[in-house]
């Protein structure tokens, strides 16, 4: 025991506490970096705070009964019918998902299961290019091409502007998102599952549809949730292509012009009525309604994103 | 006597069952359908580019660089994107100065410094949620914080940002891309092998020395790619700019204003001009000039992406 307590080399001669200046700098850097980490929390707080304040002043100054049954969103004359905007958002998102679900999933299955590495390297950038197109450009495309060439042929109508044209544009926008998230999920499915399926004599199509796809279903659900959230929050395509400026009537027909929550915000903020610069009680109320819509949008997309997040994590934990 | 016959029959039955049909028609059809999904995406890109080029090439070829150097105008033959081009580049500059250091610092904190505790998890969840918040909501944040709070209520002579100015727009876009910068930088930092850090600690370096001298240089390529991609996203964003008041209409910036003065005056940006022209009643504006402005916008984003690819190839490391 005595031997152990007195080591051969006396430690007292070596200073292991380190250079004080280096340690001080170390602490400063840590504080600085932690401050940066805090800034992201600050942003969330700022978002919620800026939305809630004006939303409350909107709700306290509006006749709550008129928020659902007046059949018209016309902030300039004080009509704030939320059902009009909700139905608009629902229709646009519905059309978008109708386009993006088959296209995105088809592309994902092909890239994950069928394409050879070399083919994949050539085809994958298609989706990356599509994902990189600014939404305002897709909005222009929706008015200039989708409206006249697709929507007018399907619904035999004369107007290039419609909720359907906007929905198709949004569908193109979210297709890459559906594809990339679900492709990641399918590639995460272990090879042993596929081999077991082939070992039982299953064909490729059976393996893909009955083994790989069900195994990656969490990721696919996540992809669709995230895409829906993105579609609901998309602004510029709808602001350009849905065709209603300033005000909109309630409609359930995708071939009609209409307005979504986001398009109403864009219209409130710029272009047709510059509410921010307006004066009088009506203008102030329209300005506040902007923040109320923002709060609703924030809440809905947050819920969808969080559900999507749970599903993404599930597939990561599984394999 | 009969046993060999039975064996042969059984083998034949099994062989027949196992070999299946030579051509799996359903399987091939499925594969073709999947490939078609990708090709439809490709077709969208081709048609979109075709539409934009056929609408916009006329203006570019007639006016040449005159389109890039002339200001906004009510007259289609005189209207150009000079102010918008400057605005977009200046906005990108603000994003680079604000979002990149802050985002990379946050990523370094989360990946290298933070302990795995509840606080870190909250920060991570928060960043993932922020990345899913619709861009138009960031516009509301910018309107409430950078335009109103910091613009008029705080600081000397009409606030820090001065209201609806370029700096307010730039800060809004910086906040918008911050989560993307953090997430992509985190991924790049995670890809640096642990042995490298251990080697650094082994020779007595402190955490910051290891981070600065070993981790960051080796994660540089990945961080760069992510940040430049987020930059091209910022250049293409329209909705937040409408809310924080990128100028809508015709304005004459003073050509003699100093470089820094331009950051605190009225401004516009390329996507904003596309939106303004696309919603104009005149065909020259809503088709030809809008498409020409889109071409300029896409060239600018393309250059940013090209720079990202080139820099990545220059600095990329394989482990």
What is this entry, summarized?
In chain A, 74% of the residues lie in helices and 2% in strands. Chain A is an all-alpha fold. The chains are: A mainly alpha (319), B mainly alpha (319).
Q: In words, what does this structure look like?
A:
- The complex is a heterodimer of chains A (319) and B (319).
- Chain A has 319 residues and is an all-alpha fold.
- Chain A contains 13 helices and three strands.
- A three-stranded antiparallel beta sheet of chain A has the order 2-1-3.
- In chain A, helix 8 (191-199) packs antiparallel against helix 9 and helix 12 crosses helix 13 (280-318).
- The longest helix of chain A has 42 residues, at 20-61.
- Chain B is an all-alpha fold.
- Helices cover 74% and strands 0% of the residues of chain B.
- The mean pLDDT of chain B is 83.
- Chains A and B meet through helix 2, helix 4, helix 5, helix 6 and helix 7 of A and helix 2, helix 4, helix 5, helix 6 and helix 7 of B.
Keywords:
A: 319 residues; mainly alpha; 74% helix; B: 319 residues; MetI-like fold; 12 helices; 0% strand
Order of helices and strands of chain A, N to C?
A: HHHEEHHHHHHHHEHH
Structural class of chain B, by secondary structure, is mainly alpha
Continuous helix count of chain B: 12
Sheet/helix structural class of chain A: mainly alpha
Query: What is the alpha-carbon Rg of chain A in Å?
Result: 27 Å
Percent helix of chain B, as a range, is over 70%
**Biggest sheet record of chain B:** none
| Fraction of residues in β-strands of chain B | under 5%
- Return the CATH architecture of the domain at 83-259 and 293-318 in chain A: Orthogonal Bundle
In terms of topology, how is this protein built?
The complex is a heterodimer of chains A (319) and B (319).
Chain A lengths: L1 H4 L14 H42 L4 H4 L2 E3 L4 E2 L1 H33 L2 H16 L2 H21 L7 H25 L3 H9 L4 H12 L1 H17 L2 H6 L6 E2 L11 H9 L10 H39 L1
Antiparallel strand pairs in A: 1-2, 1-3
Helix pairs in contact in A: 2-13, 4-7, 4-10, 5-7, 6-7, 7-10, 8-9, 10-13, 12-13
Chain B lengths: L2 H17 L5 H39 L2 H4 L12 H32 L4 H15 L2 H19 L12 H25 L3 H9 L4 H30 L2 H5 L26 H9 L4 H33 L4
Helix pairs in contact in B: 2-12, 4-7, 4-9, 4-11, 5-7, 6-7, 7-9, 8-9, 9-12, 11-12
């Amino acid at each position: 025991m005595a031997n152990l307590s007195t080591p051969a080399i006396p430690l007292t001669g070596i200073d292991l506490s380190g250079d004080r200046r280096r340690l001080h700098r170390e602490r400063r850097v840590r504080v600085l970096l932690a401050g940066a980490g805090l800034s992201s929390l600050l942003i969330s707080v700022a978002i919620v705070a800026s939305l809630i304040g004006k939303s409350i002043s909107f709700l306290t100054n509006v006749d709550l009964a008129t928020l659902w049954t007046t059949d018209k969103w016309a902030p300039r004359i004080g009509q704030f019918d939320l059902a009009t905007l909700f139905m608009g958002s629902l229709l646009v998102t519905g059309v978008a998902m109708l386009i993006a679900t088959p296209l995105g999933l088809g592309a994902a299955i092909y890239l994950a299961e069928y394409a050879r590495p070399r083919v994949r390297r050539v085809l994958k950038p298609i989706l990356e290019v599509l994902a990189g197109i600014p939404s305002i450009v897709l909005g222009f495309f929706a008015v200039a091409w989708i409206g006249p060439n697709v929507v007018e042929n399907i619904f035999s109508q004369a107007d290039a502007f419609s909720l359907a044209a906007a929905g198709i544009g949004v569908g193109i926008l979210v297709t890459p998102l559906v594809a990339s998230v679900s492709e990641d999920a399918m590639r995460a499915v272990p090879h042993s599952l596929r081999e077991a399926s082939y070992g039982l004599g299953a064909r490729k199509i059976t393996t893909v549809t009955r083994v790989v796809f069900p195994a990656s279903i969490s990721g696919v659900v996540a992809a669709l949730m995230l895409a829906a959230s993105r579609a609901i929050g998309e602004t510029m395509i709808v602001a350009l292509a849905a065709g209603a400026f300033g005000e909109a009537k309630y409609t359930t027909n995708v071939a009609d012009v209409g307005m979504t929550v986001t398009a109403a915000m864009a219209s409130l903020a710029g272009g047709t009525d510059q509410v921010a610069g307006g004066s009088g009680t009506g203008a102030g109320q329209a300005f506040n309604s902007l923040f109320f819509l923002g709060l609703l949008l924030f809440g809905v997309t947050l819920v969808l994103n969080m559900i999507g997040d749970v599903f993404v994590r599930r597939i990561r934990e599984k394999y | 006597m009969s046993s060999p016959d039975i064996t042969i029959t059984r083998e034949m039955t099994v062989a027949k069952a196992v070999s299946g049909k030579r051509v799996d028609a359903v399987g091939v059809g499925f594969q073709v359908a999947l490939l078609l999904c990708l090709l439809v995406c490709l077709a969208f890109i081709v048609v979109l580019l075709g539409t934009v080029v056929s609408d916009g090439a006329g203006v570019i070829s007639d006016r040449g660089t005159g389109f890039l150097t002339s200001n906004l105008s009510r007259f289609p033959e005189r209207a150009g994107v000079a102010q918008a081009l400057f605005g977009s580049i200046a906005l990108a500059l603000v994003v680079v100065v604000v979002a990149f250091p802050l985002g990379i610092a946050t990523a370094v904190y989360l990946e290298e410094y933070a302990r795995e505790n509840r606080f870190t998890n909250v920060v991570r969840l928060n960043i993932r949620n922020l990345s899913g918040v619709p861009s138009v909501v960031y516009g509301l944040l910018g309107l409430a914080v950078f335009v109103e709070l910091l613009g008029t209520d705080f600081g000397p002579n009409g606030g820090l940002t001065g209201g609806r100015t370029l700096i307010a727009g730039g800060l809004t876009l910086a906040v918008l891309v911050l989560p993307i910068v953090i997430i992509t930088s985190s991924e790049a930092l995670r890809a640096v092998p642990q042995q490298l850090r251990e080697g650094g600690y082994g020779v007595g370096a402190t955490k910051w020395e290891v981070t600065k001298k070993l981790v960051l240089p080796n994660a540089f390529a990945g961080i760069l790619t992510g940040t430049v991609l987020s930059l091209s996203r910022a250049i293409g964003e329209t909705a937040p700019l409408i809310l924080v008041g990128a100028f809508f209409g015709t304005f004459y910036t003073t050509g003699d204003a100093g470089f820094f003065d331009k950051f605190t005056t009225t401004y516009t940006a390329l996507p904003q001009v596309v939106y303004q022209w696309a919603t104009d009643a005149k065909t020259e504006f809503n088709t030809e000039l809008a498409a020409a402005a889109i071409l300029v916008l896409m060239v600018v984003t393309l250059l940013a992406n090209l720079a990202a690819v080139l820099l990545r190839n220059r600095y990329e490391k394989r482990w």
